[in-house]
Amino acid sequence: MSDQGSETTVIRAGFIGLGDQGGGMASRMIECGIPTTLWARRDASLEPFRGGGAFFAASPAELGAGSDVVGICVVDDDGVEQVVLGENGVVSGMNAGSLLALHSTISLAMCRRVADAAAQRGVAVIDAPVSGGGFAAAEGKLTVLVGGEAVDFETARPVLETFGGHVTHLGPLGSGLLAKLVNNVLHCAHYALARDALAAGQQLGLDQDALGQVLSASSGNSFSLNTAVAVGGFDVLAAMVGPLLRKDLDIFDALTGERGVETGSLVAVADEALELFGYARDSAHP
């Protein structure tokens, strides 16, 4: 790993998960002057960062060894297990006193597994999922929902604030994930309502595209409606958001079921959206 300097007051960051949102997060960290080391399973994901001030590690473990704060923004439980807990994973290289931030929307069980493994090495863990998408990440305007010890939140805050416009500590470990799951299920339900509203308007004789533009500037507006209008409709949107929202709704539904939490119409309406997108609960989609 490249030498990142000897200044003990400078936070050295590592980051894995350079997708649309994660790539923007890493870019913001670099732009804000945080020495940042990257690793990716695909070399192509690293190409946009070549010559741009980033450092590069040969393995997740090497990245962990050279970082004070490591951010993980891969898709799901399996991805987190591979890059964090797997052979030569991040945790195996991290030093006592360093911190791991889980930005992925994963199950609470996986979050606890990571925390337990990290604790054996004296490494702190926070869950810090984000909301807002790639554009918000690139502009430093993500919402960051954090769970964990207050002292660990303060340690990570300088890094989180490079890409987060709203960075909030919600409580103990897992609190950020709980809030993110609630957000994503509500977001999913909004898709169903927006689609039903546009369909009803069309049946009443309105042009659906024009109606979408009008609603986006009216009191019936939502982030979900704006997204659908911006990408060209729900058919285009389905493949973009369906798999991830299916994953998150399944996690939320199982969790609320286990705890006996009443969700009213929330899960049913969100399920309607995913059925319309072709990602029904019993579908063959991942």
UniProtKB/TrEMBL annotation:
<dbReference type="InterPro" id="IPR013328">
    <property type="entry name" value="6PGD_dom2"/>
</dbReference>
<dbReference type="InterPro" id="IPR008927">
    <property type="entry name" value="6-PGluconate_DH-like_C_sf"/>
</dbReference>
<keyword id="KW-0560">Oxidoreductase</keyword>
<feature type="domain" description="3-hydroxyisobutyrate dehydrogenase-like NAD-binding">
    <location>
        <begin position="174"/>
        <end position="264"/>
    </location>
</feature>
<dbReference type="Pfam" id="PF14833">
    <property type="entry name" value="NAD_binding_11"/>
</dbReference>
<dbReference type="InterPro" id="IPR036291">
    <property type="entry name" value="NAD(P)-bd_dom_sf"/>
</dbReference>
<dbReference type="GO" id="GO:0050661">
    <property type="term" value="F:NADP binding"/>
</dbReference>
<dbReference type="GO" id="GO:0016054">
    <property type="term" value="P:organic acid catabolic process"/>
</dbReference>
<dbReference type="InterPro" id="IPR006115">
    <property type="entry name" value="6PGDH_NADP-bd"/>
</dbReference>
<feature type="domain" description="6-phosphogluconate dehydrogenase NADP-binding">
    <location>
        <begin position="14"/>
        <end position="171"/>
    </location>
</feature>
<dbReference type="InterPro" id="IPR029154">
    <property type="entry name" value="HIBADH-like_NADP-bd"/>
</dbReference>
<feature type="active site">
    <location>
        <position position="180"/>
    </location>
</feature>
<dbReference type="Pfam" id="PF03446">
    <property type="entry name" value="NAD_binding_2"/>
</dbReference>
<protein>
    <submittedName>
        <fullName>3-hydroxyisobutyrate dehydrogenase</fullName>
    </submittedName>
</protein>
<dbReference type="InterPro" id="IPR015815">
    <property type="entry name" value="HIBADH-related"/>
</dbReference>
<dbReference type="GO" id="GO:0016491">
    <property type="term" value="F:oxidoreductase activity"/>
</dbReference>
<dbReference type="GO" id="GO:0051287">
    <property type="term" value="F:NAD binding"/>
</dbReference>
<dbReference type="InterPro" id="IPR002204">
    <property type="entry name" value="3-OH-isobutyrate_DH-rel_CS"/>
</dbReference>
<comment type="similarity">
    <text>Belongs to the HIBADH-related family.</text>
</comment>
<keyword id="KW-0520">NAD</keyword>
